[in-house]
Fold these 4 entries.
Entry 1:
Amino acid sequence: MMKARVTVMLKTGVLDPQGEAVRHALGALGFDGVEGVRQGKVIELDLAETSAAEAEANVTRMCEKLLANTVIESYRVEIA
Amino acid sequence: MMKARVTVMLKTGVLDPQGEAVRHALGALGFDGVEGVRQGKVIELDLAETSAAEAEANVTRMCEKLLANTVIESYRVEIA
């Protein structure tokens, strides 16, 4: 059994209103010096797979098909 | 300038309907062997701070105050 972690972020240049909202809220709470905020999602998967290489190939296909919108999002796969 | 990454996940035992939805969707797409899925969020911050220790203390306070709902979510702070 393997664990995989997928991190999906909006690509650079794509407007991130969630991140902007967090940045404003932090400023309103008195946190200075926050120059930029980007918010993304992380998906942790428990896989029956035993080969790390197979698991990574599989999870990459999951990203392409479902987990990320590759037009505006980039993703990173880590296998543990 | 420092970069911080905060990962916020629902605590173990807290129902994760988003993760469940992803698990079902992966099954429907023919991906077998996905035994569990948890979905969380990741927040990347650009900080004016120059001390890593100060940055970590600051970001931890941001988590407690805004970024995580510590009743049901756990968070992890990484400084780079």
Entry 2:
Amino acid sequence: MTYCVGVKVNEGLLFASDSRTNAGVDSVATYHKLFVFPQPGERLIVVMTAGNLAVTQEVITRLQQGLQTDDPFSNLLLARTMFDATMMVGGLLRRVIDRDRAYVQSFGADVSSSFIVGGQIAGDEPRLFLVYPAGNFIESEPATPYFQLGETKYGKPILERILNPQTTLAQVAKCALLSFDGTIKANLSVDLPIDVLIYKANSLSVGRHQEISNGDRYFADVCSAWSDGLLHVFDSIPNPPWAADDA
Amino acid sequence: MTYCVGVKVNEGLLFASDSRTNAGVDSVATYHKLFVFPQPGERLIVVMTAGNLAVTQEVITRLQQGLQTDDPFSNLLLARTMFDATMMVGGLLRRVIDRDRAYVQSFGADVSSSFIVGGQIAGDEPRLFLVYPAGNFIESEPATPYFQLGETKYGKPILERILNPQTTLAQVAKCALLSFDGTIKANLSVDLPIDVLIYKANSLSVGRHQEISNGDRYFADVCSAWSDGLLHVFDSIPNPPWAADDA
């Protein structure tokens, strides 16, 4: 499994992904799922991946190979818009699954893969997209300022409670880590390290690219402060009157 | 969809279920999913249901019809143990799906159904079981004091954080309602009213059977106190040092 979150707020974008890949519980490995395509001062594009690792690796490899061409439909750094860049990711995904699906399914496996694509190209706003397994995609809007990939349900409630376009990037980073904490606690196939990339609107360069590994002091502190705080809030709320000890 | 929670703590048992049934978003109805088989002073058995409504209704109807017989393998009130009672539920489930599966699947629908069965029979401890769609089942133990049915993921983290065998039934009730709150907010197909039944160990009778409907004052208060409390805890935790505004 995988867990990735992409967030778009007024201040910019945040991308976070775990690094665990598994094919059964006895085949677990660490693979990064967050890929950066930078052209400092002109654009920054980030792609996060989930799903069949052979499929997503080929899509990323073809994106990297495309950087050698001068074709704006093959080279992410020449794509005219973030929409065109996302179309490129969806198109590569379709090529791979058109070719591989029958072979993979004959072994009972699944080619399904999905992507979060975000970034900014000079002259346009920061944008954030979710590419479905079918290769089509949707764009974030202020009422829905985030997308998730993979094991989405455990970590969704905190995103829903906290995020809105006014949330600062520093708050978004804290919120994303708590969303990962809940997911990691609930699903063994999601785990550290977490790759976090912060992009400040109009900076056209990487703001911060942080890896949160086992033993990370801030991550441990934020998770334990959250856990203690929730227990305190829970205790502070009265029990149901109809469940009193003499009920 | 459905959401049900069954909890076993030292003080007794708690059962809670939503009441929404849907076959597509344009076919939504209210059906109760919590069924009580009482024999005051001798036993109390509770069955909660999730899955294909035709299947679960038939299982419940056959359990109710079985109450007219004097067969301990057909009459829940004569079952010798909670294990036998749960075996009865699993056996009825298998009979129904053996007969219906091919017909239902020919319309692309799913016969899958699952149950939580719990209660106490005089001379034994309170016990709590989860019946899988295959009709086999598992029993709760202190390290895992709860079972869920249906839309389980959104509401699981709070159960994990709060519940242990020492949790009081009043706290369990508060925790269950918060688990429902998170699930209802995330999944349109889970909704009020919530049926809550509290069973005190060794009472051999219903402690409290409460319906939480729209407009329930305590439910509204507990959800808003929880929401406010979480936002306060979130704000009180420092942002990541590497995400400071000058990062």
Entry 3:
Amino acid sequence: MGRSGQDPEQEAGSATFSPSAELPPPSPADLDVLRRVGARWRVDDTVRALPVDPQADEVRTATGTGRHSVLFVPDEAGRLTATPTVERQDTVEGRALGGLRRLLLGPPLTSGAILRERMPKFLALPVLASDLLSSVAYGPEAMLTVLVLAGSGALGLSLPIAAGLVVLMLAVGTSYRQTVYAYPHGAGSYLVASDTLGPRAGLGAAAGLVLDYVLTVAVSVSAGTAAITSALPALAPYRVPFALAVIGLLLTGNLRGIRVAGNVFAAPTYFFLVAVLGLIVVGLVRAAADGFTVAAPPPTPAVEGLGLLLVLRAFASGATSMTGIEAVSNAVPVFRPTEWRNARTVLTWMVGILIVIFVGLVVLFHLNGLVPTADQTLLSQLARHTFPTGPWYALVQAATALVLLLAANTAFNDLPRLLYFMARDSYVPRRFLHLGDRLALSNGLIVLAVAAAVLLVAFGGRTHSLIPLYAVGVFLAFTLSQTGMVRHWRRHRERGWRRRATINGTGAALSALVLVTAAVTKFTEGAWVVVLAVPLLIHLFRRVRRHYDQVQQALGLHAVARTDDAGPAGDEPPPIVPQQVRHLFLVPVARLNQATLRTLAYVGSLGQPALALHVSPERTEADRFRAQWATWGDHVPLETILSPHRVIITPLAGYVSALRHSRPDLTLTVVVPDVIVEHPWQRLLHYRTEQRLRRTLRRHPGIVVTSMPTHLSR
Amino acid sequence: MGRSGQDPEQEAGSATFSPSAELPPPSPADLDVLRRVGARWRVDDTVRALPVDPQADEVRTATGTGRHSVLFVPDEAGRLTATPTVERQDTVEGRALGGLRRLLLGPPLTSGAILRERMPKFLALPVLASDLLSSVAYGPEAMLTVLVLAGSGALGLSLPIAAGLVVLMLAVGTSYRQTVYAYPHGAGSYLVASDTLGPRAGLGAAAGLVLDYVLTVAVSVSAGTAAITSALPALAPYRVPFALAVIGLLLTGNLRGIRVAGNVFAAPTYFFLVAVLGLIVVGLVRAAADGFTVAAPPPTPAVEGLGLLLVLRAFASGATSMTGIEAVSNAVPVFRPTEWRNARTVLTWMVGILIVIFVGLVVLFHLNGLVPTADQTLLSQLARHTFPTGPWYALVQAATALVLLLAANTAFNDLPRLLYFMARDSYVPRRFLHLGDRLALSNGLIVLAVAAAVLLVAFGGRTHSLIPLYAVGVFLAFTLSQTGMVRHWRRHRERGWRRRATINGTGAALSALVLVTAAVTKFTEGAWVVVLAVPLLIHLFRRVRRHYDQVQQALGLHAVARTDDAGPAGDEPPPIVPQQVRHLFLVPVARLNQATLRTLAYVGSLGQPALALHVSPERTEADRFRAQWATWGDHVPLETILSPHRVIITPLAGYVSALRHSRPDLTLTVVVPDVIVEHPWQRLLHYRTEQRLRRTLRRHPGIVVTSMPTHLSR
């Protein structure tokens, strides 16, 4: 297609997950270094003979536990494949946890089961629209909640503000139609902004989106809970635990994998569409019967003056009705060919439906004189008013609750995907690349659930407290991605680029307007959290990237090319070919028992120089130990260190470190006997010298530590 | 002297601390095994040549940091001694903490500074008596608090009950006089009961004493605080923080070491003696002037009937006045020669003074018609009553508070000492043997302070809530140690043994009576905690001992004698002489970078068979890695393991474990590259394969793990 100007291969890679992403292939330059390093390897080849066939039957099967079970299966090319048997935990608690996990999440899936499912339009619409359409359950209410601060007289302003919002929806919708066209392999704001405006803008969009997704879960779940408590006020005190349970359910479902998501989504979204459109039609018919007389809202005293600031705040609050509009652009590759054309069609439908519902609800709220109250949502009031009897009220509430809870699920789909793309660029921990054993991006899912739960508890599950935080992040992403599109069109200058740039420019300008309005007018109500969090997140992303760059610098093969054959000196890294390694083994020995004697035998058998170290609190003890050592035969040179203040670890580590500094050409290996107890409480009964020494020696570069375990009661 | 029937050497060892106690010498049988094992050692002697002189100047001194500093000093016998320089922490936080520690606790002390100070009697009396004498500040009040439950009329019974308590004091005091005579090298209840009645009785006494010492701190500190808040009621709300600060102060003082203890103690105890005796004399003179008329106590309604149970409860509560009477018996070795004789003299004085003060106070409380109240102690009421004007009241209160806070210090002296003796017998963690860098038994001190603080917070710092827990533990120890003495006399049948046995028997019987009374009558008020805790502690002590016995069984040299020369088979332990060790090194490699190449060079240089392991999530990735391996030169055999569910650690550990099971004669060493980051937060950015693999492999016996570190940013 060539429209986007990107390498098609790379683009194709962008949209799908690969389990090999965690192990990226080396560059040709790296391979070259590898070849040169390997050529310098000199070692006696006789040791290549292994004392055991690594694929012998005894190795591949376990007979120890009584029954014969296959652990590894060989294939024709000489590779072993692990069977589920080997993954089974070998402790009782481990097996119990594994069983529970399997019960909740199902058996593990192999990488071959990755779905590259394509969705027809009638399925894609509900799947992608639940987030957007469900926003009307809280968006108009958020707008009226602000307006009513200026008294019930100000509520009349809802109609012109709504008109402004419709313009915004049209502009952003059209704008995204073009993004879908330009980035047919996935047009998420992070990718578009990074590609067109550079990594900083990409990180800005990403920070906005990360916050937005966390808020989507918190807001949708708390609004869904509000829909339920509006219908059943007795449940109101259990709002927070109920919402947390819903988050837990969403997490579990998503950890199980995405296979079932599509079908589950279609029905409730259509159900909601029918219920709400039915509500609007019946409401309008009734209003027409009344000759569209406007009912006076209950008189409410003004607590704030009706100024421009309040109107702008109402506008920004109402704009949360269009959160979720970006869903289609993230998901272009899931459409059937021609993907971008189908995606555009669905996007157009979605925006159309959004506008109809949004306008219908605002008009009906106005005609019926409804005012936001603490214990019942506006939608619930309207439904009760329109359907005073019969099951219809309950149906509308159930549909609303359901679609809101499913809308939260959109974030569970999108945030892990965003984190995956960011991890590929090293801006977030690489763990987010890992496909869990159910092929879900488990780490992203868990982080999202935890963050949303914390937010929900912190705000007591109240939707209206969360709304002020909501608009800033999402409109930051809109603005950056639409601005990026302007840059895109200007750069490529295809046919009609001026018109396209104008459309995206309008979208960008209007989004920026909402962004600034929301940030300024709702700053003190909570938007400051987001205004602070966005730069903080960007900083964090860049710190992570810098660390990974340092790791690459330190461990990458390119650096080896600089090291010459002369061997290491000073604080040089350890040798990279065996003939340069000069060993000295050090064995700390507190007393002579089986564990230490076996450790000494281990070291003695390596045929390398070794030195035993004994730290003694008293001169007499040191002499006594020397005598024991002589009794044993003095097979390894012994150095005793008197520690007059009776500390053990510090002089030991200090001696090893001093040795290392005086002879950086030697590779020092400290071999520590490690007594391993059966029960954790028994650790209190031991000095844990192995752990303490290891922890201390980790601070000193270049010292190899070997643990020689002795298990008790096995 | 030969009176106690114990080996005098062992006895002498009992009373003093040795830094070498943590490293007990081997038995002759162990040395014999050591000689035989050593004789079987066969290895090429050429490797004894070390590549570095272990005492070279460059090793002993650090020049790396810019200035030249000596880390280790050699002596004539070829031993190195660590200098304070080497103990200095090498991280910034470590140095800061070290500096703070030095500021609070003073510089570290060498073992030569252990004081074996002998005290003259006039110094020993206040040092050892503060606990006992301070008990009169709460004991009589505890008795009256019970009696007043039956109404103010019942308070008259305080005189006959006090008479009973005086009999008890005389009996227990005389009893301890004999114990001191029989065990001149330390006659703590744990040692006496263990020696005469067997380890179980010793543990019972120890459990009672452990609880008693913790309660001593909690009760003394809260009673001392009460003496202060009685005088300054404004401080009452800060009771608990104040008491915690006192415990912190006592802990710090004791961690600094015991050197200053004696002098600090003498003054306040004498001050208290003078103040209280003065109070009693003045009170009695005034009463005599009044013709010893008994003032009627304020009428208090009875909330309980006056039965035998209440009287016994009052008796048991009053018996807390004699807690601390055992202090002399623990400390016989600190007296000047002849130790037992001087100790007996001081003990006699102490009991005499106790009886005078106790009787005097009870009589004055009765004559003045004083009744316990919540906001002021009885002693404070009496002092106010006796000295309505002038500074005398304040002086009495200050002396009481001071002596109570110092009484808590007795527990800080005695519990760590008890734990030291128990650790030597392996009933508590060996850590309690460790002399800290200020020569204090730091671990025991810290455990005591934490336990007392927890108790104090749990009971809100209220003395009267803690009292019911108090008597049971201490009278359990009294009973067991006195019963043990009866057994002792019967066993040795020296001159006059019948008389001595009768005296100790009377002490034991009366102590047992108080023990049962306290446990039964105050069971529901809190004594049940102690009644449950004693057997629990005994169980715990025995579990600890069993673990150490198992360790000795598993690691002791005697077990080696059974292993024959044929080498290990099945689940046998690894070989004890080098010629039997057959190596296989395993190197997990995720990708080829500097860290892994250097690890492979390390393993290659050892000249032992090695196998590299690569776990791959996909077939294509496995093939790609094999190709890289070939590019490098295929210097080490490579086994790839496909993990279709994308887990890494489990198949790796499973393969190593299966290898180990199929060939138990091989010593497997897993060499893991370990990337060490600079800041802890960066750990989140790495998979930490090294740690996870090590943790998993620790569960599988007989697998040696080597960490090959690569430091970032050093």
Entry 4:
Amino acid sequence: MNAEYFLDRGKELVRLLKSRKVHSFLSKNPSLIFHLTGLHETPGYLLVLNGEVRFVTDRRFQKEAAEIKHFISSDIFTNSIVTYLKPLRKEFKQPAIEYGRVTHAEYLSLSESLKCTFTDAGDAVNQFLSVTDGLQLDSFIRAADVTSELFNYCKKVFDENLAITEKELAYELQSILVRNAAQKYSFEPIIAADENSAKPHHTPSDRNIQDCKVLLVDLGVIYSGICSDVTRTYIRNHPKAGRIEKIVHNGFKRVLGKVNAGVKVSELAQMWKAELEKVNMTHNFTHALGHGLGYEVHQIPRISEYSKETLKENQIITLEPALYFENEFGYRYECDILVTKDSGINLTVF
Amino acid sequence: MNAEYFLDRGKELVRLLKSRKVHSFLSKNPSLIFHLTGLHETPGYLLVLNGEVRFVTDRRFQKEAAEIKHFISSDIFTNSIVTYLKPLRKEFKQPAIEYGRVTHAEYLSLSESLKCTFTDAGDAVNQFLSVTDGLQLDSFIRAADVTSELFNYCKKVFDENLAITEKELAYELQSILVRNAAQKYSFEPIIAADENSAKPHHTPSDRNIQDCKVLLVDLGVIYSGICSDVTRTYIRNHPKAGRIEKIVHNGFKRVLGKVNAGVKVSELAQMWKAELEKVNMTHNFTHALGHGLGYEVHQIPRISEYSKETLKENQIITLEPALYFENEFGYRYECDILVTKDSGINLTVF
């Protein structure tokens, strides 16, 4: 039953905040609002006060707010959130907001009007949202399914060597996405032929991909709010790219074999670095090895050798080993991995 | 020549900031970056220092940065923007950022690391971006053109009384959008049949629109970064909606007749309010009369009776008079208007 998920989520947030000595909390984080209320694209505020969670919005969304059935109460402010909060000010006990989610202007407005010092609950919320439950996993599996459809199409285009530009392919893929009822891309897709693939963040151009020897496609979709993020690189008649493909895939397998709840993410990054050192290619890899995935396409943990985090059960992360050769080509392989107690399950085997 | 537009934009920003006694300025506002560099979806910072504008990004985007030809220099930071700025600290004179564009966390990081007090240049930047030049107007006209295609399709679906759900229609329209090479919707479209149209911000549902008597469609597209935002309401066999349609369209015409550079936006809102008072329907209108349009779908000026702004030449604004009858229907008519010295030109006559 979906409602139980929502009930558990609210309780867990209150518990987590309490454990960090936060007794009141205000948030306009859309991911957190969606997670606790099921409301999508509905601006408003979550207010944790006296152990309860309330959703507060303006009268444009009163109908949506009234329809929340998930054991969270809702309320409407008529003027602004500040005037709504003022009468409740005395109930605020060790209040917190997310420093990384409010603008400095909003911070000033809230703390000056309410005469409050807010601490930062950003880390607690990020930890909370980094672990998925069954409802989110269902959405992720649908997202992965739509993503695989898009890559089937890319492979077909590459195998049949069709005349199409990078930009046109991005449009074609978006049509498939729309027909498959995923909401939208989780980020602007990267479609990069030959030397364009050497740029990790290439924007699809008017370059025709016909007769290219390397085609890198990095894209993700949003399904019921949950993001996928996958890269495949297609190659043909390119001996160097063939060698690089083997290095990247072997590295991927070694790192994946090390994934489990409790492992330090820095160890994963170091393992990939060791692979690169063997072939003297450390400077051909220019980004993090991966990142958490959920309502946002980049969330904690950041998988880098400098990161202090450990993997948690039921996190979804990407692993994206890659090698780039300027003005030549790049090869990246990115999968989405569910972290379990003892292993990592590749949810994007296609 | 496009490059001249970019040159003028950079000079104008420096001039505007100087006139407000701001001599150094740091911004990561994507709209401002696109406006000054032509770079789309390229994270980085604009730095105004000693009368010059520089774009600073990390090495993932060094190729893009190197390709800026528009008389703006570029630079790469290797660690973080803070470490990049530290050696330049002594050159900072009356530095500013946009309080409404940096998070509180970023504000703390910048001001603590650089030991600087930043003032707020948000208002200057918003004013700067609220006035369009010829290059932006070209993009807007293309955006309006794609938007009219989408509404042609809606009208056809309504006139032919096809069996299709609100959600499916949103998907169909997105396919047309993609084929027309507009980037994407400027916001999640509102497609609302019968009583759903009474909610100003209805999300497309699984409701079939066949045989509906009122169909409200509110959508916009982004073309070369510029947003459109249009609403049409289709009705049939609904005498009350027919009467309301006349009130809304008459009000629209009266307000449009009043638009020119220099008019107070509060006067426009009051004029519409006076129309509503005549028919005793003030409480059936629940949002602002309109808003500025540009790189963002909601920007200054906000057209409300409480607003203190005056219209400026070459602003693009929406006018969206509407009337809502709970559990019955809503009727909204929204057009995008170019403000000229003497009048308002409706750019969305379709």
